[in-house]
Amino acid sequence: MPNHGIIYQASTLAKRVLYHLVRGFGAGLIAFAFIGIIFSFWPIAKEEFLYKFGTQEQIQIDKFAQIIGKSQAKSLGLDPYFSLYIPKIDAKAKVIANVNPGKAVDYLNALSDGVAHAQGTNFPGQGKTVYLFSHSTDSPINIAQYNAVFYLLRKLEKGDRIVVYFLDQEHDYVVMDKFTTTANDTSWLTDDGSGERLILQTCDPPGTSWNRLLVIARPI
Known about the structure:
Helices cover 34% and strands 27% of the residues. By secondary structure, it is α+β, with helices and mostly antiparallel strands. The chain has one domain (38-219): Sortase (Sortase, Chain: A, Beta Barrel), CATH 2.40.260.10. It has an eight-stranded mixed barrel with strand order 1-2-3-4-7-8-6-5.
């Protein structure tokens, strides 16, 4: 039976080639985006995995290092001059001293290399406030670069231990409090309080710059 009103038109070779090129390019973009997401969020997934499955193993390693008399800072791969270790979340980082918290160029450079010590605050053993921060990321993509060290800081509770190594000496602190405050609250930078205390700061929620999470600890 004859077909009426239907026109069949064969695609030219050029059109077929263009179609496959466009389709392949689209698939490539999707694959590239997927790989980019995995690459960006891998440090976060790793931190969560290690927190859930690796904490007890790390505690055993720490105890063994103490038994054999080995410097714990060096056994952890940390710089005994100035570094930070939080056993519960297995957070280890070099601390960069005297970083200006009001100058983006300074603190972003510092945070790409470790944790920043706020300029104008004190050092461990001086009897006043020691202020360390790892923050100022405004995108989830930047968590991998700037926020992985303190990403699990929200899991700390009262009684958890924090260790700061400074000038070849170990300074032990215990968490006393944890809370969030506004991004423009700088009162903790200038308030020395009473006695020595360690303040750790990061952004909250992770990957934003909306609020600040503060963990307050006192020397043991």
